[in-house]
Every structure is written in C-alpha cells, then in structure tokens.
Write a structure and sequence with these properties.
Arc Repressor Mutant, subunit A, Endonuclease, Chain A, 8-stranded mixed β-sheet, WH-like_DNA-bd_sf, HTH luxR-type domain-containing protein, TrmB-like, DNA binding
Length: 322
C-alpha cells in the first residue's frame, strides 16, 4: 500500500523513519533502528536518503532531525501545486490546437467550417459576442485578467460589461500588478462591496472570459487585438477548470492598512508577500520605508521557518495569521 509521501518519491520505509523522527526527536541512529525493527544504522541511512533529498529531515549530531511538517511537507505541496498549474496550462495550449484540426477535418469532408464552435473576432465583433453570451447563457461568469487585458481596459468597456453582467455572479482573478495602481485598486474594492468577487494572483499569464459552461472569449494571439469566440464544450470546460484552479490559489484583495494597529501591519505585509508583491509595492501600500519592509520580511521569514517570501505568505495563511 502506498504511503502518504509516495507522490514525492518517498517509499514506505522512508516514511516510517520520518514519522519516527517526528515522534521521537533526538533519537540516535541506533535507537531508530531498534524502534523500527531494522538490522542496523545502515538501514536507517538508506531510508533517510530520500528524506534528505526532499528536505524533510537534516543531519545533526550523527543522527537525523525531522523538519516541522507544516513547513517541510507544505513546501512539497507548494511545488506540486505549481507543477500541476504548469501542466494544466500545457493542456489548455494542447486543447487549443484541437479546434484547428476539427476545421481541417471538416473542410476535407466537404462540411461547412465550424465557425459557431471557434470563430475569430475583430474588436468590434468581440463586444457583440460578449453581449450575445451575456444574454444567452446562465451560470457564473469567470474572468481571468492577465496584464494584456488590464492594460487595454478602458472605462467604456468596463461600463458595458457592468451593464451586461448585472445580476450575474462574476468572479475575477487579477495580476498582482493591480496593487501598483491606487485608483484601480480602489475601484476593485468598490466593486467588491457591491457584490463582485475579485482575487489577486502572483502569476496571471493569459486572459479569458467564461460564461457559465456555454462559451468563452479569449485573445487570438499575444500582441494582437483580435479575439476568439469559443463554443467547443471541451475547450470551454478546460478554460473553466483553469480559472477555478487559479481562483483557488489566488488571494483576496488586501485590505487598506490606514489606521490598523502595528500587529495588523504584519498581517498586511504577509498578505502582500503571499501575492508575490514587490518590495516597492509593499512599502507603498503599507506607508513605510523600503528598508523597513526588507527588515521585517526577513524577521517574519525566520519566525515562520520559510526560505522564500512567497512561502512565508503561504505559511502564514496556513496558520490562519492572515
């Protein structure tokens, strides 16, 4: 039977050793061998090898010390989550080629091109497609807003979408760059107070908008103003699932720090670290110097047992500190 750590190459014997180190800290290699019923210290060393490679334990005083599972195992989970997100993006890219093959196959069979399933739109037609999808679909609207859409957004488009989506459940994932624009951040907070739902993620690398399970709109290619209207169920479902993964890992908009007590400033700092915000952005949002941000960040990372700023933010979230 596979152990809990099998996905990371940790076999059952290594996991037994890790659990023993957690339960009996300070045990010698000889004591560990006796406890586990192994022939000798050499077996302990062999079992410890994958644990050392995964940074679940470290060597100390001729034996081994287990690192705190909330940090060590949490790091493995963060790494696996990042890998899964990359893989999901690869799947989306692969699925996007299916539409081209379907169109080629339809042309070869003498059937009409599947324009309804996957259609190219110029900017004016894209607005019309949004209006049609808003009127003919049901369910939540998911907006994955990468920097390209964030930079191109204007008041006219924002007002139009506001009218089209009135009464719909709308969820939006924004890039961390929104934290650098005070006016935009204030606007997003006002929308949240009116019932909109917005989160911020460190990496938002592609834009798309999904209407329920029936249709989606996304850029045709990077650096162009053309768009694709997607109605192929498999592609729509993939975009929906990609958004849901991003939403799960994104963080709520940070709350304003004015008037918050000193300990709440640390919570705000950790919130921003979890989002992957730059030092300059953190300093401006907190109203403190860059030196203060870097000094307090180093202190918090040490207190949380984190090796990176992002990990400190995630660890604080895991502990309920933010």
């Amino acid at each position: 039977m596979d152990g809990l750590l099998t996905p990371w190459g940790i076999d059952e014997r290594a996991e037994r050793l890790y659990r023993a180190l957690l339960r009996r800290p300070g045990s010698s290699r000889h004591d560990l061998a006796d406890l586990l019923g192994w022939a000798g210290e050499a077996e302990v060393d062999r079992a410890a090898h994958p644990l050392l490679a995964a940074r679940l334990v470290r060597e100390a005083a001729g034996s081994y010390v287990a690192l705190a599972p909330e940090t060590a195992v949490g790091r493995l989970l963060d790494r696996e989550e990042s890998r899964l997100q990359r893989r999901l993006r690869e799947v989306v890219d692969a699925r996007s080629t299916v539409g081209d093959f379907l169109l080629d196959h339809a042309a070869g069979q003498g059937r009409p091109r599947a324009e309804e399933a996957l259609a190219a739109l110029d900017p004016d037609r894209a607005l019309g497609a949004l209006a049609e999808l808003a009127a003919t679909t049901t369910g939540p609207v998911r907006v994955h807003c990468a920097p390209d859409w964030l930079a191109a957004a204007d008041e006219r488009v924002g007002q139009l979408l506001g009218r089209l989506l009135a009464g719909r459940t709308v969820r939006v994932v924004y890039p961390v760059a929104v934290l650098d624009d005070d006016a935009q951040l204030d606007r997003l907070r006002r929308q949240a107070r009116r019932g909109g739902a917005a989160r911020v993620a460190a990496a938002v690398d592609r834009s798309f908008l999904v209407f329920g399970d029936a249709g989606a709109v996304m850029p045709a290619a990077p650096g162009t103003d053309g768009h694709l209207l997607v109605r192929t169920p498999a592609l729509v479902a993939t975009l929906r699932d990609l958004f849901d993964v991003a939403w799960h890992h994104a963080s709520p908009l940070p709350t304003p720090v004015q008037g918050r007590p000193a300990d709440a400033r640390d919570s705000a700092l950790l919130e921003l670290l979890a989002l992957g915000a730059k030092d300059e952005t953190v300093a401006r949002r907190l109203g403190v110097s860059l030196r203060t941000v870097r000094r307090r960040t180093a202190q918090l990372m040490h207190e949380l047992g984190a090796t990176t700023r992002f990990q400190a933010g995630r660890e604080a979230s895991r502990r309920g500190l933010v």
